[in-house]
Amino acid sequence: MDGAEFRTRGREMVDYMVDYIEGITSRPPLPRVSPGYIRDLIPDQAPRTGETWESVKADLERIIMPGASSPACTELEVCMMDWLGKMLQLPREFLFCEEGKGGGVIQGTASEATLVALLSARTAAMHKLRDDQPELTQGQILDKLVAYTSEEAHSSVERASLIGMVHMRLLKTDERGSLRGTTLETAIREDREKGLYPFFLCATVGTTSRCTFDNLTELGPICTRQGLWMHVDAAYAGSACICPEFRYLLDGVEHSMSFNFNPHKWLRINFDCSAMWVKDRYAVTEAFEVNPLYLKHDHQGQAIPDYRHWHIPLGRRFRSLKVWFVLRMFGVSGLQQQIRKDVSLAKMFERLVQADDRFEIFGEVVLGLVCFRIKGENARNERLYKMINDDRRIHLTPSKVKDIYFLRFAICASSTQMADVTYAWSVIKELAHKMAASEKR
Ligand code: PLP
């Protein structure tokens, strides 16, 4: 859909909304549908190729309006989470269609998903400790709990531990930025020797600073053996795993208890939309369920989830509508094409950097993030970064890992093209040249 069509369709939608509001008294106040009605009306997976807007819009009246608002909101979310889960080839235990205990929910952000995972794991661990050692007070139990993540995990993970009031250890990564099994095992052993109770690991697939990957196939079995809840945070990199050639990045996810990625980062779905799956939804509702009379309804305890027990807020928006629209308008192949275009532009930028012997690539370019630096001291890179941003033609962000300062070139806007990349590189080269000239003076 180009800009001109978007204007036309947008105006049509405004007309539709006004007609809805003006004709609201002709619609029944309560929906006449029964639980599970949407599953019978839509396909069980996302379309391979994009559909027309006309067909999507027609389904609004046919499928959504009969269940307005809450039943449709919940039911479409259930179906969209299964569509997304199948696109990622998640283990079937995470999907609703499997008749097990798993399922997915749309959270607002990855930060919330991590917090929900940590609090769910904390509740389960506290029950276990209370059963094993009934003499302990709640405070003493909390003092014993210890969670882990890597030193390269997003700051939201550490923040979840602050909110959850549990101790979190930031474990060292290897030289490729990956948290390894032996490091986790050593930490668990040390903590058990101190009388502590390790209960949670947040592993990252695609770290924020330099897009590195924790080793899920090593970490997962350790967590299973040692009774830790493994949560996988793939906020950025998860979207790429809809392409078969990148799916290997999720190898080992089958060992996790929960998994999350942000379609709003790289799947053309607007903020906010963070997709989270759990293997045991009762472990989540156990941590969050409160049932006042004013929120009770006739379908409680049935197959359709009560999402208000899956996160912190009680009220929720109809986020699955935008997921439905995007998956149908682009189709899986359209979204794969976008990921591949961005990764190939990142690879192109990598080649430009490699061809200039003043620069070096920092780490490995796997997806759309290229970390690079001027060879030599951090101070020169800090100067170059300042010059680039003061110049104001392009914008980059820096980072520092294991005391190495580097610049980050991220391809993430759907409109980015080859010409934008070559332009950005010409600006960087020009400023690097200017910096070198000023250093000689
Ligand atoms: N985890 C990772 C790996 C991220 O890269 C980010 C954000 O960039 C987050 C978590 C936090 O995401 P959100 O803003 O959705 O909370």
Describe, in short, the structure shown:
By secondary structure, the chain is α/β, with parallel strands linked by helices.
User: What are the segments in which pLDDT stays under 50 over at least 5 consecutive residues?
Assistant: none
Distance between the termini: 53 Å
Ligand inventory reads: pyridoxal-5'-phosphate
SS element count, helices: 13
Specify the CATH homologous superfamily of the largest domain: Type I PLP-dependent aspartate aminotransferase-like (Major domain)
Give the class from helix and strand content and strand pairing: alpha/beta
Q: What would CATH call the architecture of the largest domain? A: 3-Layer(aba) Sandwich
Might you state the CATH topology name of the largest domain? Aspartate Aminotransferase, domain 2
Rg: 24 Å
